[in-house]
Amino acid sequence: MRFVIRTDRPVTVAFEPTAAECALEPGRPIVVEWFGEGDDGMVSMEAENFVVAAPSGGYSRAWDADGLEIYIGPESGPEAH
């Protein structure tokens, strides 16, 4: 599954289970893709944090508004920052 996170105010996006975080600014969306067979991935907004939890047995990858991969864990690609 691939989806886009957009915001109208600055927030921090936290990726679980790695606990990696990145800043999300208005007008600078993040694209997230889930890999794996599980169907229990979750997203939630908690105060100023947007939490993305990968599906059981799966993992997430994410790209910034410039198309560069964001390092969020060991499954991130070799070019991730």
Write the layout of secondary structure elements.
Layout: E1 2-5, E2 11-16, E3 20-24, E4 30-35, E5 42-46, E6 49-53, E7 59-63, E8 69-70
Parallel strand pairs: 2-6
Antiparallel strand pairs: 1-4, 2-3, 4-7, 5-6, 7-8
Give a description of the structure.
A hairpin with a 2-residue loop joins strand 5 and strand 6. The relative contact order is 0.26. The chain has strands spanning 2-5, 11-16, 20-24, 30-35, 42-46, 49-53, 59-63, 69-70. The mean pLDDT is 94. The protein has 81 residues and is an all-beta fold.
Summarize the structure.
This protein is an all-beta fold. 0% of the residues lie in helices and 47% in strands.
Name a few traits of the molecule.
81 residues; mainly beta; four-stranded antiparallel sheet; four-stranded mixed sheet; 0% helix; globular
